[in-house]
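Anyone up for a design puzzle?
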């Protein structure tokens, strides 16, 4: 086990913030780490081609705050050479490890042999991981699905990736065909873990602390997205529920971080994130509709102050 994994093992069971296009940016990752510094954060997905060909774009997504470490950058593309070049660039930004997206089910990209189509294009999948692992010192991991049409090849595919030097695998409990529907067969993931050496992350529908302890069993980590959106406290053990004041403080901090990160796009980003923190509180309905119209940071502060005065 490398020092990196030994360090992470001290945090067992490890909670990971799932990669999420348009959401798991540096601002949200800093918020999650502020609430629980032990969470390991995955970035949104970025195109390997994009990182290789645009210094400007690489510079806008790869630098990160000290508190986000160890950060995982997730990338997608289709040919091993581009993955390798991107991996070398990513490593130079002090990223902890690189995750390859073999998860995404979007039809357009699957048809062009990106993303989850790599589950049925296993030679390319192998080469991608092998080439990247040879090119960089940091670990390379994979996020994938139960399978493409069915789950029959899961163990074989995972072993294949392990042989290519993947250091960890995250499995989302849906096949490509199932997309976001159907009740998963959980036993398959425990079976998978018995058959491979590398750490396995459970991903799908983790609800709260009790739920993750129940699902973890022989697995190493778990990963959450939907239940953490607007609720970064879902990463705290014992399913802590924050007071409204704590919630409002975090909302203000999130908005402030978005200003630093997104500049002109700040207002749009703030609106979509902030309303989510107030989901499930019927008495703040009126304030939620004010939050989707904020134009300045002072507008945000005013709405938060009004909520505080109404608690
Ligand atoms: C709108 C949307 C965007 C997503 N973006 C990514 C992504 O960039 N990379 C990735 O691997 N998974 C992505 N996911 C999948 C999530 O990481 C996660 O696998 C999924 O939401 C299931 O976990 P949950 O049940 O905790 O929500 C995305 C999911 C949604 C709904």
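Challenge accepted. My sequence:
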């Amino acid at each position: 086990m490398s020092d990196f994994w030994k360090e992470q093992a001290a945090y067992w069971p490890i909670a990971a913030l799932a990669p999420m296009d348009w959401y798991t940016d540096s601002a949200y990752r800093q918020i999650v780490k502020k609430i629980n510094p032990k969470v390991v954060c995955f970035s949104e997905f970025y195109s390997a081609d994009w990182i290789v060909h645009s210094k400007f774009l690489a510079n806008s997504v790869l630098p990160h705050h000290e508190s986000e470490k160890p950060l995982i950058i997730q990338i997608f593309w289709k040919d091993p050479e581009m993955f390798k070049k991107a991996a070398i660039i990513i490593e130079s930004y002090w990223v902890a490890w690189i995750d390859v997206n073999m998860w995404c089910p979007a039809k357009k990209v699957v048809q062009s042999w990106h993303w989850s189509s790599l589950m049925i294009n296993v030679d390319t999948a192998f080469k991608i991981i092998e080439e990247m692992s040879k090119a960089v010192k940091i670990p390379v991991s994979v996020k994938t699905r139960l399978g493409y049409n069915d789950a029959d090849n899961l163990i074989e595919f995972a072993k294949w990736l392990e042989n290519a030097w993947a250091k960890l695998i995250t499995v989302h409990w849906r096949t490509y065909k199932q997309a976001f529907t159907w009740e998963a067969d959980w036993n398959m993931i425990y079976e998978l873990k018995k058959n491979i050496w590398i750490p396995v992350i459970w991903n799908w529908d983790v609800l709260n602390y009790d739920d993750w302890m129940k699902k973890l069993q022989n697995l190493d980590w778990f990963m959450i997205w939907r239940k953490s959106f607007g609720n970064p406290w879902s990463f705290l053990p014992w399913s802590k529920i924050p007071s409204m004041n704590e919630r409002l403080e975090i909302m203000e901090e999130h908005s402030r971080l978005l200003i630093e990160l997104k500049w002109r796009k700040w207002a749009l980003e703030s609106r979509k994130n902030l309303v989510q923190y107030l989901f499930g509180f019927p008495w703040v309905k009126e304030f939620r509709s004010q939050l989707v119209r904020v134009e300045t940071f002072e507008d945000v502060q005013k709405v938060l102050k009004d909520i505080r005065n109404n608690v």
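A detail worth pointing out: The chain has two domains: 2-239, 244-310.
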